[in-house]
Amino acid sequence: MLIAIDGPAGAGKSTVASAVADALGFTYLDSGAMYRCVALAELRGAQDPLACAIELGRQVTLDGEDVTEAIRAPEVTARASEVAARPEVRGQLVALQRKMICSGDYVAEGRDIGTVVAPEAELKVFLTASPEERARRRAEQTGVDPGHVLREHEERDERDTTRAHSPLEPAPDALRVDTTGLSIDEVTHKIVQLARAVR
Ligand code: CDP
């Protein structure tokens, strides 16, 4: 079974997707971490960033090096949404993601899981929250000023929704969940219930 969770920056996808995966005994796939790895490889001057080996798990590794922390740096985040607009990058990462989700039960999270990577997913959720709430949550996690986070999110969401290739948009059959004012546990519980209902 596959649960696809898509949505804009800071909507709580990672936290919720990994909690849902834990609750159901599924594997969690953070597709954004893969775009971040390509961005990091490029920023470090790799000749062919797409040739670097990416491994996801408790730690994220790039050619064997633990980059779990490094891929969260602000410059990597900004570059990730730039590299994610390139068809050759998406083509390769989407192929890898499809291979992974075929191997078992997954909760996969990103921007295009329900629309492009796996339109056949049994459950598709489009997670949103008000821009202010999304910025507040991310600022709490990172210690960065909320106003700064809001501007960074606006820039990234604009690029992600307007790109020609696989833009961020809800799949026609995705269930929209607005998490503004909801706790992580409430959102997780809701998605777990939905998953049990379609299973
Ligand atoms: O967690 P956050 O929403 O801040 O970012 P992320 O999910 O780690 O994704 C970083 C960037 O990768 C996004 O801004 C997108 O440009 C890109 N991305 C994508 O295009 N498609 C995906 N399936 C996942 C991420």
Kindly report the average pLDDT value. Answer: 96
Count of separate DSSP helical elements: 8
Tell me the total number of β-strands.
8
Rg for CA atoms: 16 Å
Summarize the structure in words.
The strands form two sheets. The protein has a five-stranded parallel sheet, with helices on both faces. The protein is 50% helix and 15% strand. The model has no long low-confidence stretch (mean pLDDT 96). The chain has 199 residues and is an alpha/beta fold. Cytidine-5'-diphosphate binds at residues 9-10, 14, 31-32, 35-36, 80-81, 84, 110-112, 156, 160.
Task: Tell me the layout of helices and strands.
Layout: E1 2-6, H1 13-24, E2 27-30, H2 31-43, E3 54-55, E4 61-62, E5 65-66, H3 74-83, H4 87-101, E6 106-110, H5 113-117, E7 123-128, H6 131-142, H7 146-162, E8 175-178, H8 184-198
Parallel strand pairs: 1-6, 1-7, 2-6, 7-8
Antiparallel strand pairs: 3-4, 4-5
Helix pairs in contact: 1-8, 2-3, 2-4, 6-7
The structure holds cytidine-5'-diphosphate (CDP).
Brief descriptors of the model:
alpha/beta, 8 helices, 50% helix, single chain, 199 residues, binds cytidine-5'-diphosphate, 5-stranded parallel sheet
Gist?
The chain has eight helices and eight strands; from the N terminus they run E-H-E-H-E-E-E-H-H-E-H-E-H-H-E-H.
